[in-house]
Specification:
CATH architecture of the largest domain: Roll
CATH superfamily of the largest domain: Ribosomal protein L24
Order of helices and strands: EEEEHHHH
CATH class of the largest domain: Mainly Beta
Oligomer: single chain
Number of domains: 2
Largest sheet: 2 strands, antiparallel
Strand order of the largest sheet: 1-2
Shape: globular
Radius of gyration: 15 Å
Helix content: 25-40%
Length: 98
């Protein structure tokens, strides 16, 4: 499943929007709310209801946090650039430590 380019939520099959830029980059959106916020130039890190904001402020649920850490680790292992570098504490949480 794809993830929303703004809020970070999973998009169920058959729903959402795909916006393709002239450069060929595809942007996936779960709702028109997310699409409008990108159009307005808002930053997900500063928008309170997005996954990125919750992750920054430490307000993600334990399951969502573990999933986000696994995705970052997979992106790093596959050669993609990680959005945020994983520190020692994040690596311990991913391995199941305290």
């Amino acid at each position: 499943m794809a993830r929303c380019g703004f809020c970070g939520n999973e998009i169920p099959k058959g729903t959402g929007f795909i916006f393709v830029e002239k450069t060929g980059k595809a942007l996936y959106f779960c709702s028109s709310k997310c699409e409008r916020n990108v159009g307005l130039g808002r930053i997900p890190r500063k928008t309170r209801w997005t996954q990125e904001f919750r992750k920054l402020k430490g307000k993600l649920s334990a399951a969502a946090e573990k999933e986000a850490l696994q995705q970052e680790a997979e992106a790093t292992a596959s050669g993609g650039k990680p959005k945020v570098s994983m520190g020692g504490a994040a690596a311990k949480k991913l391995k199941g430590g305290a």
